[in-house]
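Q: Predict the bound structure with protoporphyrin IX containing FE.
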Amino acid sequence: MSEPARYDPVAQAFHWLTALAVIGLVAIGMVMTELPPGSSLQFRLFQWHKSVGITVLAVTLLRVAWRLAHRPPSLPAGMPGWEAMAARATHAVLYSLLLVLPLEGWAVVSASPLHIPTVLYGVLSWPDLPGLGALSGKPAIEAALKTLHDILGWSFAALLVLHVTAALRHHLILRDDVLRRMLPRRRRVRVHLYSAFLAVAIVPALPSHSARAAEWAVDMGHSTLGFTGSQGGSPFSGHFTRWQAEIAFDPANPAGGHARVVVDMTSATTGDSQKDQALPQPDWFDVKEFPQAEFVAAAFRPKGGNAYEAVGTLTIRGVRQDVVLPFTLDLDGDHAHAAGRLPLLRTDYGVGQGAWSTGQMVGLEVAATLDLTATRRP
Ligand code: HEM
Ligand code: HEM
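A: Predicted complex:
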């Protein structure tokens, strides 16, 4: 292979896109951890942090593959041995951190007892790391994973200061080619390339960062959270009398919205005393062990007209599953009416144990239904 004089354009694009993303991640990481816990802005910044962080992981895997197949330029001939070694070591550690830090961040959210779903850029549901959900009841491990992420994040930032100082020293003091060979060849091209990077990196971020999702207060007297099922082929329905919902939604920016509904499972009622006695039992909702169910929407997607989807997770009996809830939304000034139906297989959540899990007596197909009236908070 002949000796290249500079990094090829693909390696340069990987380098500068990653640099932009990492600086953004450290900045968002610093800001989001200082915000009031549970605030709408904090929620959105966490989603952005996770989305960009996972993107860095994917891009770094591609970058490493590209790097292994394409030789970089050699270090300047007159460079002292210690400095060449320091440069190679710094680059190797930077590459390692670009892989380890997002993986470790992914572990932090996978082991978190909050079970907040990750929906990349409000569009793509991202799974948790397998096996780590089992750690979510162990606060010491969760705290250790968080601390490790903080330490790795700050070490990364410190190493970058060293890296950038070295690059500037080469350019401004030693006046060699080290920085130039990581930059596009001609000025005109450079301007275009930077504009392209900025467009790719910043434009998608704008709507979500600038628009705050409006908060909605649910009118409990005119809202119903229900469920439907069938027994011996005959349909039945019921509802929950106690539940709470926090909703942040802006029709102009559905991807930036989020919602959380917590349901008191002891409050299920069908109007049929036999069913009402059975539902709290261990075979069904097991309310002693699992008093609450939870639906968390990490983003909303417009589906045309008044149709939307809420992308998130549903947890019943401690079993969490990714779900997409279709609903319609009708707005009248500051008043909103939303209605949706989420078909489910009750056995996906362990509802109906033992003989009940066959579906012979009580159908496996059930649905959660939602009819909400809400007012925009001032
Ligand atoms: C913020 C995140 C950044 C990360 C993660 C990062 C990472 C890296 C890595 C891993 C390499 C080695 C490339 C290879 O040989 O395959 C590299 C090279 C380089 N970086 Fe960065 N970098 C960042 C920011 C910057 C900044 C802000 C500058 C300049 C001010 C810079 C200047 C350079 C230069 C000049 C090289 C080429 C060094 C050489 O020729 O051996 N980097 N960077
Ligand atoms: C190169 C990638 C990443 C960098 C540079 C980075 C950097 C940071 C930084 C600087 C903080 C703030 C630490 C503090 O002051 O408390 C932070 C927090 C956090 N990051 Fe990342 N991060 C990355 C990837 C990820 C990924 C991929 C995820 C999840 C999928 C993630 C999840 C988190 C979480 C949950 C916190 C808050 C932890 C806490 O509550 O203390 N990060 N990150």
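A: Residues 22, 25-26, 29-30, 33, 49-50, 53-54, 56, 98, 101-102, 105-106, 108-109, 118, 146, 149-150, 153, 156 surround protoporphyrin IX containing FE (ligand 2) (CB under 6 Å).
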